[in-house]
Write a structure and sequence with these properties.
Mean pLDDT of chain A: 84
Shape of chain B: rod-shaped
Number of helices of chain B: 4
Helix content of chain A: over 70%
Largest sheet of chain B: 3 strands, mixed
Distance between the termini of chain A: 33 Å
Largest interface: A-B, 67 and 54 residues
Oligomer: heterodimer
Radius of gyration of chain A: 26 Å
Number of strands of chain A: 0
Strand order of the largest sheet of chain B: 1-2-3
Low-confidence stretches of chain B: none
Number of helices of chain A: 9
Chain lengths: 346, 155
């Protein structure tokens, strides 16, 4: 249904005066509107503007992450003092310390996880509107085979990845944190091993899906691009065989449509890229800030504390890293496919 | 989300229980046995949700995406053809009117194109002399390739 609406929207956008086709990317959703650049004509300036706005808005998150970090450091110091004062309290202190640090970290990790999932959902939904427009635009420019294959491939991989996010990666991150919390509280090495296995499978999965996706795009681009270029060439040859006047008019009209479709497709693609970045960049930088501060906190904890708590903080930082990876992977897929659509027929 | 919460809680409880049991035992041989039992129990607890995943959870229908892609491409192709045909009609229309003016006729032409954008039929209305009609008709068939039987004249 959503696809049909997108097609209808694309069709409505494409109903235009005779001189040219008018193709517009769907408008950026409400949440990304404030991050959109003023200048949407230059990629470099536009991306710079979005990045600048996103960095400027990071301050509250940095403060929040720093507060979490200070809380953890205080807990670790307290834990170290407890350990020094009494040997009999060692195990209890370890469990209590781990639980305290885990509950502090879980709150911020949970909010970052929700932020990542929301960002992925928004980017995927926007991609579902943008890709049909780009497909229609590329087909109008002569890339009929390429556009269909690019669309089908991108939608499949985006669906696979978003399915993986909701069915495997999000539960996997919670599970990984639970396993590490259990391992650090009880000192059970086996739980840590299972957690590591889970973490490695998650990052392997992300890398593999991205690798297969880029390989698919590369192969599709070469094969379908050649087919479309051959069809375009054959059409030109056929036109030349028509009666001179009609052939000339036909050739000029086709050229005008191809050129205007190309210009419009690129403008829609650039807007689409800005829209995806506007949806992505701020949440991505927020998660990245939390990730870096957690890494820093883990390093400080290794210096001032001992025991299993630094490993737990490191595990939470790894979870943030996986969050960054999965958010980035979905957005990169939509961005790469948009660029492939923009590249057009060779 | 509820299921996930239940899963995490049950797994954490299982892990903590195993940890407590292991820390209570001092005897090394018994401890090794319990460790093995706990390990199997934990692996089963971790893998349990995998048995509940059904194929409908991962309903990625490639053929549906292929059809959607083809439909979107067909929309683009059709719109490009419409735009191209509009340009061709405008160009040929002004071409025919220029010719008509040079022969002294005052006409209006309505062209029909085939799927490749080639003119196949023309409807001419207005005022003309027999000479100018003959000139324009010849022009239409020789220059534009519209056969005489496909030229409709309404005076």
């Amino acid at each position: 249904m959503r696809f049909l609406l997108a097609i209808l929207a694309a069709a409505a956008l494409l109903v235009t005066p005779a001189a040219a086709l008018e193709i517009e990317a769907p408008e950026v959703p409400e949440s990304g509107r404030e991050w959109m650049p003023e200048n949407t004509h230059s990629i470099a300036e536009g991306v710079g503007e979005i990045f600048h706005k996103a960095v400027q808005a990071l301050r509250p998150d940095l403060r929040e992450a720093a507060q979490v970090s200070v809380g953890i450091l205080a807990s670790v110091i307290l834990l170290s003092v407890l350990r020094l004062t009494s040997d009999s309290m060692k195990q209890t202190a370890e469990i209590a310390g781990t639980t305290t640090v885990a509950s502090i970290l879980f709150l911020s990790t949970n909010s970052m996880l929700h932020l990542a999932v929301n960002t992925i959902t928004e980017v995927v939904e926007y991609g579902k509107l943008l890709l049909p427009v780009m497909t229609a635009a590329l087909a109008a420019q002569g890339g009929i085979t390429a556009s269909g294959s690019l669309y089908a491939g991108t939608m499949l991989f985006v669906a696979v990845l978003s399915g993986m996010v909701s069915h495997f990666l999000v539960p996997g991150i919670y599970l990984f944190l639970a396993l590490y919390t259990g391992s650090c509280a009880c000192g059970e090495e086996m739980l840590k091993r299972i957690g590591d296995l889970l973490k490695n499978s998650m990052s392997w999965l992300l890398k593999t899906i991205l690798m297969i996706f880029t390989s698919y795009l590369g192969l599709t681009g070469v094969v379908t691009g050649t087919t479309d270029a051959a069809v375009l060439k054959a059409t030109k040859v056929t036109m030349a065989s028509f009666i001179p006047v009609v052939g000339g008019v036909l050739s000029d009209a086709s050229e005008a449509v191809l050129v205007s479709a190309g210009v419009m497709k690129n403008a829609a693609g650039v807007y689409g890229i800005f829209a995806v970045l506007a949806l992505l960049l701020n949440p991505f930088l927020r998660i990245a800030a939390h990730y870096l501060i957690l890494k820093l906190t883990a390093a400080f904890c290794c210096v001032i504390g001992e025991g299993r708590v630094p490993a737990l903080i490191e595990a939470f930082a790894s979870a943030m890293g996986i969050l960054l990876g999965m958010t980035g992977a979905v957005c990169v897929m939509v961005l790469i496919s948009t660029v492939c659509f923009m590249r057009g027929v060779a | 989300m509820q299921l996930l919460g239940k899963y995490v809680v049950s797994l954490t409880t299982a892990a903590i229980l195993c940890g407590i049991l292991l820390s209570l035992l001092k005897d090394d041989s018994l401890r090794k046995l319990l460790r093995l039992v706990c390990g199997i129990f934990l692996i089963l607890a971790v893998l349990e949700p995998l048995t509940e995943i059904s194929s409908s959870d991962f309903s990625w229908q490639y053929s549906a995406y292929v059809s959607e892609g083809r439909a979107a491409a067909a929309v683009g192709e059709e719109l490009a053809a419409d735009a191209r045909n509009r340009i061709i009609k405008e160009e040929l229309h002004s071409y025919i009117l220029d010719k008509a003016v040079s022969t002294g006729a005052e006409i209006e032409a309505e062209l029909t194109l085939d799927e490749n954008g080639v003119p196949v039929f023309v409807h001419i209305s207005g005022k003309w002399t027999p000479e100018s009609k003959s000139d324009i008709s010849r022009f239409l068939s020789e220059e534009l390739g519209i056969a005489k039987e496909n030229q409709q004249w309404t005076g």
